[in-house]
Specification:
The structure holds two protein chains of two kinds.
Chain A (H helix, E strand, L loop, with lengths): L2 E7 L5 H5 L11 E8 L3 E2 L2 E10 L3 H16 L4 E7 L1 E3 L4 E9 L2 H18 L2 E7 L4 E3 L4 H11 L3
Parallel strand pairs in A: 1-5
Antiparallel strand pairs in A: 2-7, 3-4, 4-6, 4-8, 5-7, 8-9
Helix pairs in contact in A: 2-3, 3-4
Chain B lengths: L1 E5 L1 H7 L3 E4 L6 H9 L3 H7 L6 E4 L2 E3 L10 E5 L6
Parallel strand pairs in B: 1-5
Antiparallel strand pairs in B: 1-2, 3-4, 3-5
Helix pairs in contact in B: 2-3
Classes of the chains: A alpha+beta, B alpha+beta.
Chain lengths: 156, 82
């Protein structure tokens, strides 16, 4: 039975503290794989001083739940935690945490990568970055993210 | 009546977070055509080939998706989360 926790929050994300609950007390878990996405201070050659993450309330939660459910269909998982920040973030702030617990590492590694790849192309979040020189802009979607998600469609 | 929402760069460019349409077209493609017909920035944002995604009742939708009374339609640019 897969235990899931999915959250979208505007408060700081304590990524390390959020990992332990995915396995604590679950004696069948043999491994945990986690991914922590951080805000960087450099994008497309420009210094970035801050970022605002916008989302589509309601749809976001549904999209994240659908991605986690799909991972649960593809692999035998004990637990998944998926937490995403919205609002204002600064360089080094965790933006997203994916933590996957499973009996064996192979399932956990694959499911973790699948979830973040799908999230990047299917969950309605948008980044608006503030640059060190005072300009600001919406971040463009990257073709490489589409390629990563499409790779899972081919049954990899 | 349907509710139409605009997000992120679309909201900024259109100067609107959303609106209610009393008379709604039959499909998502027709709705997009109506928005283009408003001209100016609407034509720029929703014109053919522009990277706009759409959701109906908070699920990703394609152009042929039929629209029904009470639907919520969201328009937004390609997503950049994670």
């Amino acid at each position: 039975m897969m235990d899931t926790e999915i959250r979208v929050q505007s408060t700081p994300l304590d990524a390390l503290a959020e990992i332990e609950p995915v396995y604590a007390g679950r004696h069948s878990v043999g491994g945990v794989v986690s991914f922590i996405g951080l805000m960087r201070d450099l994008n497309q050659g420009d210094r970035v001083s801050g970022m605002t993450l916008e989302h589509y309330p309601g749809m976001t939660e549904k999209a994240l739940a659908a991605i986690v459910e799909e991972a649960g269909r593809r692999w035998e998982l004990d637990g998944v935690r998926l937490i995403h920040r919205v609002g204002q973030v600064l360089p080094q702030d965790p933006i997203v945490l994916v933590a996957v617990a499973s009996a064996h590492r192979g399932e956990a590694f694959r499911a973790c990568e699948f979830i973040i790849d799908y999230l990047k192309t299917r969950a309605p979040f948008w980044k608006h970055e503030q640059m060190a020189d005072g300009r600001s802009r919406w971040v463009d979607a990257r073709g490489s993210d589409d390629d990563a998600a499409a790779g899972w469609e081919k049954g990899s | 009546m349907i509710r139409v929402l605009y997000f992120a760069s679309l909201r900024e460019r259109l100067g609107s977070a959303g609106e209610t349409l009393v008379d709604h077209p039959a499909t998502l493609a027709e709705l997009r055509g109506q928005l283009v017909a408003r001209g100016d920035v609407w034509a720029e944002v929703f014109g053919e080939g522009q990277p706009v995604l759409a959701a109906v009742n908070q699920e990703m939708a394609t152009a042929e998706q039929p629209l029904r009374e009470g639907d919520e339609v969201g328009f937004f640019p390609p997503v950049t989360g994670g």
